[in-house]
Amino acid sequence: MLIRNAPDLTENDVTDHGLYLRRREFIGGAAGLGLAGLASTADAAPLRFSKGFSTTEKLTSREDVTTYNNFYEFGVDKADPAENAGKLKTRPWTVRIDGECEAPRTVGIDDLIKQNKLEERIYRMRCVEGWSMVIPWVGFPLRDLIASVKPTSKARFVAFETLMRPSEMPGQAWNVLEWPYREGLRIDEATHPLTLMAVGLYGETLPNQNGAPLRLVVPWKYGFKGIKSIVRISLTEKQPRTAWNISAPREYGFYSNVNPAVDHPRWSQATERRIGEFKRRETLPFNGYGQYVADLYRGMDLKANY
Ligand SMILES: Nc1nc2c(c(=O)[nH]1)N[C@H]1C(S)=C(S)[C@@H](COP(=O)(O)O)O[C@H]1N2
Ligand SMILES: [Mo]
């Protein structure tokens, strides 16, 4: 699918030699130090990325993007992930890609990053709770990863799983969700050019609280579809079970496309608060990405398929 000349997206696929993904390492337990608790590693080579399809809207501050988070493995309050996720060891880290494909593989995160062409994508993110941000991710299209394992004709869906490691993820001791966190996409959603595997944020390695070392970003869907700290990606014939749908099926559907016309059973989805702003703004269908993705849902009842 071609994406170009969009009023809201700028394309600059020419590699910008000034842009590098710098690696940063969190010092375990350096919670109170915030960003001052970061130290750079000398061993890692800087990784180059180009600028991809991005919104020109004002960015949400780095401070807000990294301290106002949902990551229930580290607690249910917005400040918990920044405070507790420093414990998570993101190296070594392997990702298993398997299921309905001819070339299943297990790949280390650093090889995965090296093997893929990184680009910056500035996307809106709309949480199902009614707030939103504009976030500069660094990552690569999920479609490239899927192509690398040669899907069979039976691959109709993609299932994702977060790491299960209660010793470093204290929230996994509580039954707020069925662990590990799971998500899923239809294969055509997963291979859409806008669907991104993020490994960086604000030009640097992804902070743990944002889903290091690898997280999904699907900008036209509610934020909870963007599963963090992924260890497994499986191509499946059947629609996968997903964490929020298991927990509250009437409230969180499999599709969860941003839709101002379909309210959450407990609140309206017509408006949202952009973090850093006071006045609420109107929520756009498909979070403003309708011209690129509405075709995926042609003929579907979006109220029934919420
Ligand atoms: N594994 C996992 N992934 C997750 C979540 C979570 O609790 N666990 N929360 C989701 C929700 S509700 C949102 S809004 C986004 C938040 O991403 P951010 O903290 O990077 O803004 O992550 C999603 N991915
Ligand atoms: Mo969310």
UniProtKB/TrEMBL annotation:
One example GO MF annotation: oxidoreductase activity, acting on a sulfur group of donors, quinone or similar compound as acceptor
Superkingdom: Bacteria
Membrane-traversing stretches: none
EC number: 1.8.5.-
Catalyzed chemical reaction(s): L-methionyl-[protein] + a quinone + H2O = L-methionyl-(R)-S-oxide-[protein] + a quinol; L-methionyl-[protein] + a quinone + H2O = L-methionyl-(S)-S-oxide-[protein] + a quinol
Cofactor binding: number and manner: Binds 1 Mo-molybdopterin (Mo-MPT) cofactor per subunit.
Keywords: Metal-binding, Molybdenum, Oxidoreductase, Signal
Matching InterPro entries: MsrP, OxRdtase_Mopterin-bd_dom, OxRdtase_Mopterin-bd_sf, TAT_signal
Gene Ontology biological-process entries: protein repair
Positions that bind Mo-molybdopterin: 69, 72-73, 127, 162, 210, 215, 226-228
Cofactor(s) needed: Mo-molybdopterin
Location of the Oxidoreductase molybdopterin-binding domain: 89-244
Post-translational modification: Predicted to be exported by the Tat system. The position of the signal peptide cleavage has not been experimentally proven.
Signal peptide annotation: none
NCBIfam families from the UniProt entry: PRK05363.1
Function: Part of the MsrPQ system that repairs oxidized periplasmic proteins containing methionine sulfoxide residues (Met-O), using respiratory chain electrons. Thus protects these proteins from oxidative-stress damage caused by reactive species of oxygen and chlorine generated by the host defense mechanisms. MsrPQ is essential for the maintenance of envelope integrity under bleach stress, rescuing a wide series of structurally unrelated periplasmic proteins from methionine oxidation.
Assembly, per entry: Heterodimer of a catalytic subunit (MsrP) and a heme-binding subunit (MsrQ).
Similarity comment: Belongs to the MsrP family.
HAMAP family: MsrP
Protein name from the UniProt record: Protein-methionine-sulfoxide reductase catalytic subunit MsrP
Organism: Caulobacter henricii
